[in-house]
Amino acid sequence: MVDTLKFRDGKILSWVAVSMLFVLAGCQGSPVYYHQSTQKQVVVLDHREISVLPLGDNRFEAYGGKQGGMSPDLAAQQARQIQAIEKVSGCVVTASEYDPNGDTDRLLLRATVDCSRRIGG
Q: How far is residue 107's CA from residue 51's CA, in Å, rounded to a whole number?
């Protein structure tokens, strides 16, 4: 009886794990979403990939650009993310923010752009 329960529990846990992967793959805040989205454009700055997604209404998200190490330079990371959004949109970032309820690594930046102020113009 105990061996049967162990097998059944293992099978249930495997099913739950697989189910969670499918759920997370579709969540916008998950890294998988930013690697699989067909809308993304990848910009490489300072040898770091940043996925940029248009959200519509002059809003964009940038995911990634983190530098390795124990204490990464978050200001440089934010500057890379803003630069990536400006490169993709061709517009100037006027406001940006990280999710105040999470994302302590600051991988996901949300920004608003002003396209009346074009980059280089």
A: 10
pLDDT by 10s per residue, the chain, length 121 = 555 445 455 555 565 555 554 444 444 455 555 556 778 899 999 889 999 999 999 999 999 888 776 677 888 999 999 999 999 999 999 999 997 776 677 889 999 999 997 776 6
The first and second tokens of residue 19, run together, are 């189910």
Residue type at 119 in one-letter notation? I
Would you kindly state where each structural domain of the chain is located, as residue ranges? 1-36, 39-121
Q: What are phi and psi of 39, to 5 degrees?
A: -85, -10
- Alpha helix (H) residue ranges in the chain: 2-26, 31-36, 74-89
